[in-house]
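Reminder to self: keep the SMILES exactly as supplied, no canonicalising. Ligand is S-adenosylmethionine.
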Amino acid sequence: MSNGQTFQMLAKTFEGLEDILAEELVTLGAQNVVPHKRAVTFEGDNHVMYKANYASRLALRILKPIHSFKASDEDSLYKGAGEIEWWKIFNIHQTFSIDAVVNNAPMFRNSMFASLRVKDAIADQFRNKYGERPSVAKDNPDFRISVHIQGHDATISMDSTGESLHRRGYRALEHIAPLNEVLAAALVKFSGWDMNSNLVDPMCGSGTILIEAGMQMLNIPPGYFRKHYAFQSWKDFDNSLWGDVRESFRTKSVRPSFKLRGVDIKARSVEQARENIRAAGLQRFITIEQADFRDFIPPDGGGYIITNPPYGERISVEDIEKLYKDFGDKMKKDFAGYTAWVISSGTEALKAIELHVSKKHTLFNGALECKFQKYELYEGTKKTVTKELEAK
Ligand SMILES: C[S@@+](CC[C@H](N)C(=O)[O-])C[C@H]1O[C@@H](n2cnc3c(N)ncnc32)[C@H](O)[C@@H]1O
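Structure tokens returned for the bound complex:
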């Protein structure tokens, strides 16, 4: 499809997801894909840009760099930003916003200052040409501009995404500590769940992990429920190409013999999970029940557990280590044949699980550094533990 002009792009993501995002972008047709810290650069045409926005589960936003230059101080930033012909990109009746990130550049007092200088350059250019200027809008601007300064190197990009890609459009009710959808999608990928066996989240909150897993299983694009992307306001927006991109993703019809099950002790979480699952159209595939995981009987036949227990940060738990210890005991007792993955920032709490960690990823849930740890619960685990207890 589309042999449009090829250009550079940059997909932003969370630290730790760069390599799997790079692999995903290759499958979406991206070329010259290179992972960096919290970002992946790649090349493609509008077709690839639309696809990356619509179908990347692991990207937070897709930027299209339009100008790179040396910016050793605020004046050179102003001058460089003024070299872009903004009046060709948008008009005085449209709104814009600017996000700036400044690294290793002490000559800029802060990122706010950098964004103000770029805003001045844009406003002055319009004023000089038309005697009027477009307005800045914090909420729902027509155009989002991204400024990145690394040392003396500045890059100005157009943000093709708008509202972050983790906003899939299925979250009807918000949990107090929801997992970001992009991180949840990454956990499902890292876990190696084969989409052909039981999947249990015994502390499921609003159900994000199960919903992302269900969408992957049915091949529902992450943008399926989303209403708008920033590139739809661009002058070169190709509506028919956009239609082709959406058409090219076919959801799978699946009649699973296995189960996707969620459990949460709180009635409110159960309500949120059920509502979100309904909004994602996955109610036939995922069941949620209100229970303490200690009382939950897992589906037969083994499978996967992926869970995000409380860390004791946003949700206070009286004895966080006891919760993890009981969770470890429950897995040993009732989950033989399962492979379990647990994400937590609680280093001491994780130790209380007292099971052998067979694999580990370091990931970030917002600012919190977390470990995502794997435990294999062989049939033998149960016997070994029982014997150990008997011997005591
Ligand atoms: C960090 S939240 C999970 C958030 C979830 N991943 C999401 O995206 O919404 C942890 C959840 O564990 C639940 N929880 C705490 N103790 C539990 C227990 N003993 N049994 C079942 N659920 C429990 C809490 O009610 C909370 O909803």
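Points to follow up:
The first strand starts at residue 7 and ends at 12.
Residues 111-130 form the longest helix (20 residues).
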